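Course assignment 3, question 2. Fill in each field.
Student: A.L.
Task: Predict the tertiary structure for the chain below.
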Amino acid sequence: MNKPVLRIKNLTKSFGDTVVIKGVSFEVNPSEVIVVIGSSGTGKSTLLQCLNLLHTPDAGQIFLEDEEITSLDVNEDKVRQQMGMVFQEFNLFNHLSVLNNVAIGMVKVMGMPAGEAAKKAMKELSRVGMADHSEKYPAQLSGGQKQRVGIARALGMNPKVMLFDEPTSALDPELTGEVLAVMQKLATEGMTMVIVSHEMGFAREVADRVIFMENGYIEEQGTPEQIFENPRSQRTREFLSVINRK
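Answer field:
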């Protein structure tokens, strides 16, 4: 049995007097795709940002393979290199070409020679269907194209896990499909992923496990079939009934 890539134990996070994450625990296995669903304000994005150490948890532990990344002496930059993060907003550098947006992290963080980084960047752009746009600038791209460049940039760091925080929420509906298709391709390639998403069809089709969060807790988790067809929790049933009416 393979060891989990990620182990989250009793994670807690507050902002002021508001407790946003309340003792959350789960594991992520190699090549597993976990989709986290739930209403707005239930702590889903905060959970991802704690995993990537963009927020420091107040209590609990996170292990990336055998390393406790919540220990005081951890190298946060090294952790973020191993956990690629794709945000709602694209966070591209407007003054850099698509190619250089992808290559810059390899040069600055990994110390890769520029020529090698450019070659690797083209490989990752091909992976997300953006190689033909390598010389363009972000202002020349659609939102879906920008997000695919963001995915290529994260892949360029050779992460052990990819984290996606509502990657399609800033996109028009017609552009959402192209980003979800890239994520689906990564899943078939065996990429380990934790995805916060409101795309229930995508969760049904691609997830190995669905986690439903409510009020900072994990209310329920299981296979897509179990969560969507036979949820145990009354709160899960209520959430899905509202979603299905939209």
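Instructor remarks: Residues 186 and 192 are 9 Å apart (CA to CA). The chain has a mean pLDDT of 93.
Grade: pending
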